[in-house]
Amino acid sequence: MHGSKLFVGNLSYSVTSQKLKDLFSAYGVVTEVKIIEGKGFGFVEMSNQAEAEKAKMALNNSSLEGRNLSIDEARAPKNRERRDFRR
To answer: 17-56: string of b/e by CB count within 10 Å (b at 16+)?
Structure first.
């Protein structure tokens, strides 16, 4: 693992940023939490790579509000080409 930002998938829509922060705080210092509303996933950034790896190992496939979390290292966003649909 190279970074400290984690992708957290398969979230229940009722999960809050605070709930994720509390869950991940058991494995280190959480510096940022962002839930993508209405999509069922979010991101958690830990203070360093070692803490992120520890959280990933402990929480991947664990249950939160009846759903098994899918946790992986966050990838950089894809560079999307701007399309011009006017023709």
So the answer is: eebbeebbeebbebeebebeeeebebebbbeeeebbbbbb
